[in-house]
Structures are given as C-alpha cells and as structure tokens.
Amino acid sequence: MTSSTLTSRFDAYVAAHNSHDIARLMSFMAPNVSYSDYGVESLQMDKAALTPFFTNMNEICGDMTLTPRSCHDSESFTTWEWDLDFKYMKPSPTLPGVEVKGQAIRMKGVSLIWWVRVGDEWKVERGSDYACFVKDSLSGSA
Fold this sequence. Notes:
142 residues; alpha+beta; six-stranded mixed beta sheet; 4 helices; globular
C-alpha cells in the first residue's frame, strides 16, 4: 500500500466514526472482528455486539467528534492517539455520579487496529481502544 492509500483508509475510518452512521462504521469491520474498548470495559465484542455498542455510544455521546492527534499506519496495523469530544446526553455506568446535563466532556485515548484483506477491501479484524476522561471536563471546567 502506498502512503496516500494508507492515509485515505485512515481518513475514511475516522470520517465513518464522526458521521455517527452505524452502517458506515460497521462497513469497516471484518466478519470475524474482535473489538475491545477498555475505557468502558466492553471487551472482545464480535460484529453482532458492535452495532448496539456503537448505537448506545451515539446516544450517550451527543455531537461526538473524534480528532486524531498522531497516527502510525502500515498495511496491516494502525496505532493512533485521539481526542474524543462529546456532550453527555444519557446516563452511563462509566460516568457514575456525573449528572447528565448536556455538558461537554473530553476523553483522550489510543487505538490499535489490526487490518485484514477481505476481497478487495481492508477491514478491521481486531481493534483495541484505551481511553481516559479528562478530569476537568467532568467537572465542567474544561
């Protein structure tokens, strides 16, 4: 893969996240995907579990925007740092004691993605997200 092809694939993946279109995001997942979000303790999700996971995330995180900070990409592996900004719209067990009032919250994290070729396309075979909340954003002072 050329550098521009890798960049295009990564940009399309980030755009799918930011579109809030679950079908578009799921189109990046391999049939046998295993996806873990350690920040919210949702581990080893298969493709069937990812649709409700991402749907629920969109309901909790209004106006969600994922902003890449750095990326290292190769044909079969990507690692990248990101900021996730959203408005807190629905109670979540990962934010106990934080009142839901549409406030802006920020997370910082890193994602690891293992890609596999499926036909003519590269799909996510395994993904691992690691994240934490920016404490000042939880108190409303970010």
